[in-house]
Amino acid sequence: SHLAAALAVDPGLVMGHALAGLMACLQARRSLDQAAARSLGAARTGLRLRGGTPREHAFIASLAAWQEGGDMAQAALHLEQHLLTYPLDAAALKLAHGIRFMLGDSPGLRLPIERALPAWNDEMPHAGYIRGCHAFALEETGDVWRAERVGRHAVAMQPADLWGAHAVAHALESSGRAREGIGWLDSVARQMAGLGNFARHIDWHRALFHLHLHEGEAALALYDSRVCDILSEDYRDLANAASLLWRMAAQGVPVGAARWDALADLAERRIGDHSLVFADLHHVITLAAAGRAASLHAFLGGMRGRALRDTDTQARLHASIGLPLAEGIAAALGGRPAGALHLAPLLRRDLQR
């Protein structure tokens, strides 16, 4: 909505178009490819007519790498190179962080922020958000105790900082402090209201804490009222829902067939749209758990075609790990656990990717 308002005032706003294009790419939906391409064209037109700053050039280069070449690492790298000169560019830091997160690149989450942090102090606008990103990167690289400390500081600076709150939740879970984790999420709940689908992911973490405490009914109630209260096409919402249902079922919570069917209906709409391996794997879980054999066969066929046909970042991931994982998941959930044995080395070595 902020971007739409800015572009209504200035239809040639280069940064507005570049950011709109990157937002479309981040949603990992083939239906938004043309929107991203239009944004890239409009940004380039504005740059040609007006000239451009180094910042505008960096954001356009990032968008072009992703939209035209499907090269997500290069998209992040353009922003990170820009940050070497302009370390206070919070938008560039946040976007690079988001892309590295989608790539499962834990060192790539942490190093650019730590290069930039010496230029920051706590009085600067957006500093709380940047420290929240740093906290999550610390947790993802195993520095759990420091992650908790930095995350709590980030939320104290900026109470609406979901990444900081999220990092603390991860740290508390990985250190086995489930009851404390619920208390932490209770303490930040008021600030999280109305902050979009990431707030639903925070409730997903709350449900995990309940599962750690063998409180399956509380987890299921959260699923119905907060995690999957809206049947959303956003892959992050579907991933939250599918992974939580799977965890509950694995712990003996009676989740019923209707919940799986509702998610499978969404997954069927994504057959042929294989923009992100992470999303595809959750769609496979959903279709297999719902017993949609024909749709599952078609979905795996789409993944196979993507792996054979294309050479971009996600197509290479489909070929190297996505498709083997998907076939193993389908076998395991289809009652053929021996068909998943080949996953063991992949899980040890490559799952983070």
Q: Top keywords for this entry?
A:
mainly alpha, 19 helices, 0% strand
Summarize the structure.
It contains 19 helices and no strands.
Would you mind describing this structure in some detail?
The chain has 353 residues and is an all-alpha fold. 75% of the residues lie in helices and 0% in strands. The protein is globular, with a radius of gyration of 21 Å. The mean pLDDT is 95.
CA-atom Rg in angstroms: 21 Å
Give the overall pLDDT as a whole number.
Answer: 95
How can the largest sheet be summarized?
none
Q: Estimate percent helicity.
A: over 70%
Percent strand equals under 5%
Number of helices: 19
- What is the tally of beta strands? 0
Structural class: mainly alpha
Low-confidence stretches: none
Shape annotation: globular
Give the SSE string: HHHHHHHHHHHHHHHHHHH
Euclidean distance between termini CA atoms? 32 Å
Provide the fold topology:
Blueprint lengths: L1 H8 L4 H13 L6 H18 L3 H16 L2 H14 L4 H13 L3 H11 L10 H14 L3 H14 L4 H13 L3 H15 L4 H16 L3 H12 L7 H16 L5 H13 L8 H13 L3 H17 L3 H21 L9 H7 L4
Helix pairs in contact: 1-2, 2-3, 2-4, 3-4, 4-5, 5-6, 6-7, 7-8, 8-9, 8-10, 9-10, 10-11, 10-12, 11-12, 12-13, 12-14, 13-14, 14-15, 14-16, 15-16, 16-17, 16-18, 17-18
